Structures are given as structure tokens and as C-alpha cells.
Amino acid sequence: MSVTIETRDNYKYFHPIQTRWNDNDMYGHVNNVIYYAYFDTAVNMFMVDNAGFDPHDATVVGICPESHCNYHKSVAYPNKLEAGLRIDRLGNSSVRYEVAIFIAGDEEAAATGYFVHVFVDRETRKPVSIPAIIRSAMETILADTPSSGGAAS
Amino acid sequence: MSVTIETRDNYKYFHPIQTRWNDNDMYGHVNNVIYYAYFDTAVNMFMVDNAGFDPHDATVVGICPESHCNYHKSVAYPNKLEAGLRIDRLGNSSVRYEVAIFIAGDEEAAATGYFVHVFVDRETRKPVSIPAIIRSAMETILADTPSSGGAAS
Amino acid sequence: MSVTIETRDNYKYFHPIQTRWNDNDMYGHVNNVIYYAYFDTAVNMFMVDNAGFDPHDATVVGICPESHCNYHKSVAYPNKLEAGLRIDRLGNSSVRYEVAIFIAGDEEAAATGYFVHVFVDRETRKPVSIPAIIRSAMETILADTPSSGGAAS
Amino acid sequence: MSVTIETRDNYKYFHPIQTRWNDNDMYGHVNNVIYYAYFDTAVNMFMVDNAGFDPHDATVVGICPESHCNYHKSVAYPNKLEAGLRIDRLGNSSVRYEVAIFIAGDEEAAATGYFVHVFVDRETRKPVSIPAIIRSAMETILADTPSSGGAAS
């Protein structure tokens, strides 16, 4: 299970993350579950801020078929955090974000993972092409050297 | 159930609150439960920022015997929010914060409530006097006209 | 702040509540916020189980204008809990549930509170009369001696 | 991204999972984040129920360095769910659980993932051997055909 620690310069978009009192579990650090709430929030916020995505009215929405996290070191409320994003795989209807959680000011990520969005019609839940305005925003945070893994469909 | 809508100038301390994607419930607005996470976070952050409170090491900690919320209008991710605090009742070992949640920039509170902290010894969980440094910070956000209700013990 | 401890025989409907690992906060007990998730879940489950309420399709839904909790003693994962409900105030469009959280098998409530639901049209969010099938279910859990407080509207 | 759908007979331990009202996000299904709360709860409950693990007093505790989930079909409150567990990799200080979430009664998993626990000294947070009583319990849910991946350390 060797895991490369990622640094800030590997990410293209940053979103501040505010910890909450009850993010900490009884071991005194942010519970493993909560990192995924940070991922989800940062990914959606990227679309809100950069592509005018409105989760209340959008007829095409992103749903998550896969997520992953490696936890490298503890973070805890009241730490101020940042989520870093880049995109390694951009397909017709799906996208895979690489995500990292940093303690504000740290060079090395406290956690790294990925988060896949498949775009679907809000009513039918059938996959559709990523809307052009969202795709354009995504292209601005493509990794310099995309992963060699199979392209997302 | 007449409820007075509170405005910003009734509060003495403000803390920004970041909404999260899954704060919204299936009706598309922040779930009633989550407001209490905002309360909890703002109250503890007040102590962290103004009285050097360290939840990991403090030997005297605040636990909550009572909380309350009135919801006046919906808020929703990705709204940016603020929590406003003031103190109406400051006793020997307990304090009652009046709390309000504002959509950033709004004059009128979207929700108002209160949150009581009783200070206890971290190990024995017996009530103790509020530490002097915390009490001093609390005195800076006392309401101009404290409620006439019975003082907290 | 004298608070009457309520016992099981004061409640008319019980719903088991499963605690989760991250319900516990860093003080090792269920965080004050989470009790409201128990309230919300029990109240909606009462309608699902007893009045065929379907939160996905219902055109009339209950939204919460007010909630309250008094915490009497700690509960913690992995405790098994039960939520007890009764109704003290049943109006045309709103209802106030008295709610208690019990450690399974305990006579005395670990926490007591209330939770108000106002029924609204799902689209317009305007108050409407409580649907007859739901009202009938509610009448089966009316308190024997309703509170003398002003009736809910 | 071909993913094998797992069925119930591939799992060795089952734990019922109760959904909560606010598990559902604004798309009306359980938010991707919450599945990890189910994982965490089931894994810890396995240790509580089968190895006498007490998260409040244990001097050796499991912390999570890695988790993963593939979401195959939606689940939603008020669905009744079950988490299935088996162990594919059992090392000296760490264990990897394969986890699946089933709608109660379904043969095919709605979601599948894994959850790694590294056992550490509660104070020093240094890895230690898995306690014998916990290891014995783990051995009862080993997969019939462990994955060929590198053994956990």
C-alpha cells in the first residue's frame, strides 16, 4: 500500500473547508467519513463557482458512482482546511476528480482521494453528455499529465 | 407561537458558516438538524478564537444541556451563512447563548435559537466555574438588555 | 431550569434508533446535534409506518419551524436507543410532537424535547391542512392530558 | 470501470443499518458520504459484538488509512438496509474489510467497497499487533478465496 504524498502544486483549484465541532469523532480527529463530505462540497462548489451550476434547478446533475480516500495524517476541528482539485480523466458523461485535503498552509496533503461524477438527466437518471459550460470549466483544471488509466466513459 | 425576527444589530459576534452539499435534505434546503451543527461550531469557535480554548487539551469543557431553534426561512447549500451570537444569561458554571443564522448580507435572521453550555471537569463531568479567561471573553458579548428569565445556575 | 424527567409510559409510539460510530463527538458521547436527527427520523418514520407517508412522492410534506431538546444524561455509540413520541398539540396544519430518547430498556428518558411539523404544499410551500390519513394516525398518539399551551395553528 | 456486482453469499457477517431522514440528499437518495458512515458503523459493531471491543476504554483502537466505495444503485430513507462484511486481507496490525450495502432482502449489493483498519496504541497512535481476541473474531469472517493483492502490513 505505498501511497505517494501529494503536494499543493499538483492541484489546480482550491476551496477552503471549514471544519465543524462534530466532524471530530471520539478519537479527537476528523472522522474518515467526513472527508467525503469535504470532497462532495468542493467538487460541487467548483461547478457552482466556475460553471454557474445550480443544484436546485439544473436539469443535468452529477451523481457519484465511485469515491476513494487515503488518509495520511490526522486533521481536527478547529483546523482550517483546503480541498485541492484537479481532473485526470474527462470523458463524455463522466469525470474523475483527484482531490486532496490540506491543513491550511501545509505543502503536503493530509488526505488524497478521488471522486467520480457521472452526469445524468435529473428526471430519468440516464447518463448524458457533460454540459458544455461545465466541460469548459473542467478543462481549466485538467492535470498536466493525465493518469494512464482507462478513460472514463 | 409568535416569534420575533431578530436582526444583525442584536448580535455581538459573527462567525462565517460554510454550507455543505449534504446539509440539504431531500426538500432542497438545509435540514433542521444541521442548524444545531452551525450553533455548536460557532459557540466553540467563539471560545477558540477569543479565549484560547483548546477542545483537545482543555481540562474544563462545555457540554450542552439544552438547545432550541426557530426556523424562519429556508437556507440552502451553496448559500454562504453567518452565525451571530450574544449572551443573555451568564451564570457561575453555565451560559446561554442566543444564536442566529443569517444568509450572508441579510439583515434578518433565517433562524434563531439558543444554546446552553455547562462547564464541567473533563474527567468527572461535574460542573465547575467557568474559567476566568473564557468568562472575560463572554462578557464582551453580553446582550445590552439581558433577558429577564431566571439566571442560569 | 427545572426539567421533569419523563418516563416511558408517557409516550405512545416507539421507534428503535441505531447509533452510529460518528454520532459520538470528541467527548465520547452522542453529540447534541445528533439527537435532532433521531427526532426527525422517528417523526417521519411514524408517518411512514402509520400513515403511508412517502417522502419521495407526497404532495403535502411536513417541514420543521421549531425544535427543542433537553439533555439529561449521556448516550453513546454503541448504545441501542429508542425514540418515544406523543402529540400534545394538533392543529389544522401543524402538530407538535413531544419526543424522548431512551437507552433501550431504561425507564427514564436520556433526553426530551419537541419537534413541530407544519404541513405545506410541496411546490408552493404554503401551509395546508394535515391530510386526513396522517391526522388519523396522529390522533392515536395524542397525549392523555394535552399541554395547556396555546394550540398550534 | 467494470465492477462486479456482489451478492449476499459473498459476505460472512451482516449488520442491519437504519437509514435516517437526512441521509437523503437533495436528489432524494442516500448521499454518497453516508455509505461510509454505514461502513464505519458496521465494522466497529462487528468488533463490539464479536470481540468485546469497547471504543471508550480500549487501549488499542482501529483507525482508518483507506476507504473506497462503488455505488451501483440508489438507496433512500426509509429503506431498511444491511451491511455485509468479509475480510480479504488480514495482516499483523491491519485488516481490510470488504463491505457491501444491501437493501434488506435484496440479493445484489447496492454498493460495495472496502475499509481498512490499522490498529494503534490509543495514546501514541503507533501501529501495534491486532489484539488476539479481535483477530480470532476476524478469522471467522475471512473470505473463502482471499484476494491475491499484496497482504496488508
CATH homologous superfamily of chain A, by name? Answer: Hotdog Thioesterase
The largest sheet of chain A has its strands arranged as: 1-3-4-5-2
Basic shape of chain A: globular
Summarize the main sheet of chain A: 5 strands, antiparallel
Q: List SSEs of chain A in N-to-C order.
A: EHEEEEH
Provide the helix percentage of chain A: 10-25%
Total domain count of chain A: 1
For the termini of chain A, the CA-CA separation is 27 Å
How do you describe this structure in short?
Four copies of one chain form a homotetramer. With 153 residues, chain A is of the alpha+beta class.
Helix and strand arrangement:
4 copies of one chain form a homotetramer.
Chain A lengths: L12 E6 L13 H20 L8 E12 L8 E11 L3 E10 L7 E11 L10 H8 L14
Antiparallel strand pairs in A: 1-3, 2-5, 3-4, 4-5
What features would you describe in this structure?
The first copy, chain A, has 153 residues and is α+β, with helices and mostly antiparallel strands. Helix content of chain A is 18%, strand content 33%. Chain A is globular. Residues 148-153 of chain A have low confidence and may be disordered. Chains in contact: A-B, A-C, A-D, B-C, B-D, C-D. Chain A binds chain D through residues 1, 26-27, 31-34, 36-37, 40, 55-56, 61, 63-72, 116, 122, 150, 152-153, and chain D through 1, 26-27, 31-34, 36-37, 40, 55-56, 61, 63-71, 116, 122, 150, 152-153.
